[in-house]
Here is the input.
Amino acid sequence: MTAPHDYRLTLGDRDFAPLMIGGMGVDISTSEMVLEAVRLGCIAHLSDAMIPAVCDRNFGTKFVRSKVDNHRRLQNEAYDENRIPKHDVHEYRQAQFQYVSHTVEKKQGTGGIFVNCMEKVQAGSPQEILEIRLKAILDAGADGISLSAGLHGHSMRLMSDHPRFRDVKIGIVVSSWRALKIFLRTASKVNRLPDYVVVEGPLAGGHLGFGEDWANYDLKTILIDVMQNLKQEGLSIPVIPGGGIFDAADALSFLQAGAAAVQVATRFTVTQESGLSDHAKQAYFNAEEKDVLVSGVSPTGYLFRLLTSSPCLNSNLAPQCIPLGYAMDPKGHCQYIDAYNATGFAESGVKLPVLEKVCLCHHIGRYDSWTCGSTVTRLKETVAKNSNGLYILPSTEQVVREYLEM
Ligand SMILES: Cc1cc2nc3c(=O)[nH]c(=O)nc-3n(C[C@H](O)[C@H](O)[C@H](O)COP(=O)(O)O)c2cc1C
Here is the structure.
């Protein structure tokens, strides 16, 4: 019987198993998870979300820690974005390089270490920081970069003078042919097509590339539309769907429809190697449909899928843009600041929950913003419970093998 492992993903001169683990920030797709999948011949992504903070935690650096300490004295004031300092671009370079090379140095096997680079993570100085982040990934020796969370109108140009620009694998994550067409136009200006396209559907975890009508869209329909349009343009670029692909049967049905591989994430959130706490992993296993929310609480402006039990919801934390500030727009402003100031705290001195938005940088960095794909409700079908009534965490290897039926 045919199984996903009978297919291969070919990207130029490289050949992989047809399974990609999507980047899961902040350090949920850990170095350990990525290395395991790569050992088994797959592509797996590190996420470049909030890397300076991740480095402080993983390697004891002080990129963010010192700023957090200085910031404490301002906790009880109304927040004024004029106080927000510009972020230090060299810090970004150092952190990004350290984080990626730490994994690349340990690589074994034929898979690929890729990094997911989100355009929307701006920290107030957009192009300068984006360029630094992209080039540090290339310098650190990653096999590939997936450009996500934005149209990436400048990203190809920003990398184009790097010696690895023509050799590294570069992909773009989109949710429609329309977005891909815009990207292809900008890519053609530097004469460099993407090596692959990830089409992310409405059931994915993290931020969604859809509006409030997300439920009207279907991944397979978008995949076929993108493949047909590429063909019409005479372009032969592998297309990789992601979002709601839960098991080997799902993967096979997409491969048979013409997908070059599949991108998955939610199944790996509960693995032993995942960066989530054990408490959060059990919450993911226990999730029922009523516990999954597609919400506008992210200050990035994108919809965000998360569990209603996420500790971040309805918090009244003062904005943390001074020490963190990853979700600030190009003018250095964050939507959470407005939502926080609108509670009237400055005038009344009474702390009320901020319902409209969450201070995502702070909460996601503390693993208390529990984002997930819609198939989170099915995780409980995949493992047994131990004698204490807790779900037994699978290994990354186990989940990779289940997807590929190796
Ligand atoms: C916990 C979690 C964190 C994620 N973080 C990111 C991220 O940092 N950047 C990004 O582009 N996508 C992120 N995603 C999206 C995944 O990379 C992936 O494309 C998608 O979730 C696949 O769908 P599935 O989860 O239904 O398998 C995240 C997904 C999850 C579940």
In short: Residues 153 and 186 are 6 Å apart (CA to CA).
